[in-house]
Amino acid sequence: MAATVVEENQGANNVEWTDENTRIVCELLAEQVRIGNRSNTHLNKVGYDNVIAKFEEKTSLRYQKLQFKNKWSKLRNEYNLWKKLIARETGLGCDQARATIVASDDWWARAKKDLPGCAKFKLRGIQNEHLLQQIFEDLRNTGDDHCNPTSENLPQSSTQPSSTINVDTEAVNEGDDDDSNDEDFSPPPKRGNAAAGKEAKKPKTSGGHWFYEQMSRFVDNQEKSVASVESLVKREDTSGCAIKDVMALVKECGAVFGTKEHFIATEIFTKKYEREMFMTLDNSEERFAWLTIKHEFKMAKYSK
User: Fold this and answer.
1) Fewest CB within a 10 Å sphere: which of 37, 68, 97, 216?
2) In b/e form, how buried is each residue of 180-194, taking b as 16+ CB within 10 angstroms?
3) pLDDT in tens, 186-230
4) CA quadruple 114, 115, 116, 118: dihedral positive or negative?
5) Separation CA 61–CA 45 (nearest Å)
6) Plot region of 11 (φ>0 → left; ψ -120 to 50 → alpha; else → beta)
């Protein structure tokens, strides 16, 4: 059957992402992340080429790279929003049928004010969460170890001007499809010498000096973040606790896809210490029972 080709100039907004197609693309994106085809905050060229080919094979739809890049960005934004929403308060109920939070209308009204766009989760929670966790969890910036110039909690300085200067730390250009950025990601240019042997000039005004300091700190943190992500992607787990190895034992103990034990495994085994604990169990019976208890414990927390 011939594939339906969706032209790139139609843009991602003209692509109809059904629940089934979204599930398929999440599985494909997670697969590419697991095998190391995410070079920075997006898949590299090899990763996107694999997704395009496999998505066409499964759906008979041939979407362009731009549409998958935009879908990646939308999924990442939704996942971050969902994580912020469920972290607002503990002790809320859980509607297992709709996989979302049970809370009062007042609680939702406050949430919608603080987190624009979260209202859609009142009727149905985020879909494919276990896959999105594999794709984006290590990219989420909690703000604990980064200086974000757009945050309200900027470092204080006696030279800080009264007006607020907003600096976008990350902007997704929905129309930019430059392949040169996929494989060779360059961190922001380092401050310092503007040319060999010449020192960069610092601004003379107090407002300009404060802005210079904030941008310098921002560049340093960006460089550290890029190095951290690249080392995480390239690092191989030689301890025997790699996700692929552990999930093979999950299936071996009887927790096949569709069971609650398999679901909880996909939730918790993105964390290495959980995988290490699982590997200490002696046999399949113990592993299956442990996964069952883990699932019941998590559901009990939501139902309180």
Assistant:
1) 97
2) eebeeeeeeeeeeee
3) 445 555 444 444 445 555 555 666 777 777 777 777 777 666 655
4) negative
5) 19
6) left
